[in-house]
Amino acid sequence: MSGSDETSQARALGEALATLRRERGLSQAEAGARIGMTSQGWGLYEAGKRSNLFRPDVQRRLTGALDATPEALVLQMGGEPASPEALPATGLSARGRVFDGAPLQTRRLRLETDELAPWASAGTVLEYVPGRWPRRGQGCVIQIDDGAQRVRLYDRADDAEVVVLGAGGLDRTERIARSRIQSMSAVTARFDDE
Hints:
Blueprint: H1 3-23, H2 28-33, H3 39-46, H4 56-65, H5 70-77, E1 107-110, E2 125-129, E3 139-144, E4 149-157, E5 161-165, E6 173-177, E7 181-191
Helix pairs in contact: 1-5
């Protein structure tokens, strides 16, 4: 692979990483903080200026911070994930048909309590996108392993837990172990009951 081809591929890979991050509503600082990296360090990966972006272990680490996989990164680039045997020694390489993403599937639910007032009160209908990670201060719908569904405001997360607001009022925080969360969904619209 020539130097210009490698530079071009690094930029494309970085752009795909940036798109995945934005889809999850995270800033470079928030994504980097999840893996102990500065926003500047994360930005260098998105700009394609770090050659180790081609390493599979680095891709796993970066996409893991976004609750995604290296395969999602390849799909974002417009290719199909390669089988592990077909991967070059330098990392993932994507060529092939373009992935036609399905339109976002949204769901709705009506709040039964005033726990999130004044952000949203009982009777408010929330529209959310299953699987889309929320950004700080955004509403979220969390499916817990015991079958419970919680509606909260996302605050922050690390490798072990997610911190949300709204467990009995917006001034109260709740810590939920990541191992208990089956899915996290970002609220994209609110419809007040009229």
